Structure prediction request, 316 residues.
Amino acid sequence: MDSGPSRTLREITSQPAVWGEAVSSVAAFADALPRRGERVAVVGCGTSWFMAHAYAQLRESGGHGETDAFAASEFPYDRRYDRVLAISRSGTTTEVLELLHRVRDGAATGAITADPGTPVMEAADAVAVLDFADEESVVQTRFATAVLALLRAHLEAEGALPEGVRPMADAIRDAERALAEPLDDGVLGAGQFTFLGTGWTYGLALEAGLKMREAAGAWTEAYPAMEYRHGPISITAPGRAVWVFGPLPEGLAGDVLAVGGTLAADSGAGDLDLDPLADLVRAQRLAVVLAESRGYDPDRPRNLTRSVVLENADAR
Prediction:
């Protein structure tokens, strides 16, 4: 008996509404968010790290302040920041908690989480709780994109959204379209995927590749778009796809087609002309479809847990 859509797919489908709630929450969470002109480090693990990467590019290119992104385990403690912002859906990730405790005396700290009943609430000076975006799934989808929606909306409210980046109201409408439009046959039938992005959308490319690996065990790679010709093109061939988030570099479409690859339908503002964050929703959908076609359960990815808590680490 068909039990209906997977939990992961239901959470993916909820994103337009969840983004709207995140946008409306900007003022309420202002204490946890960077101030204009601050030198900021944004940290996370896995998906949260990739959202940190996207936000760091958006904030700095929008003139809001110097911004770096790090995997929490790779944070440079000898570098000085005015504020450290941590992203942690579970609020229990060992590397994030240790980092917040170590930097607290030297910098203001903020965190964005989905669970108010976790240690991150005490580890950071101020916390934005996106409990409306929390997930049952191990694989992150709506929490991650809601975090970026919140941070984009904050930049928008402060007049620091980079030129060419759409207002979140437009991104939400595009997400609705991304959920309604069918995925094209070229990507549905592909056996390998190369995701590309430029600036802030490179973080989205990294995240799309991770989603496909986590949910479907797919062969995926991700690169800055202009790096594609410097090696990654060698993997492209018939039955393999290239998916570009954001602007398509001049001549790249021809390069993909010349070696027999498939260019994803909306790559580089194609027929759908979606906001790149909305285009990530399409990649999430593809991950679920591919997982199910391979006999995998997207709600129960192999070898993964919802949070990484290291047994012998001192998270204080």
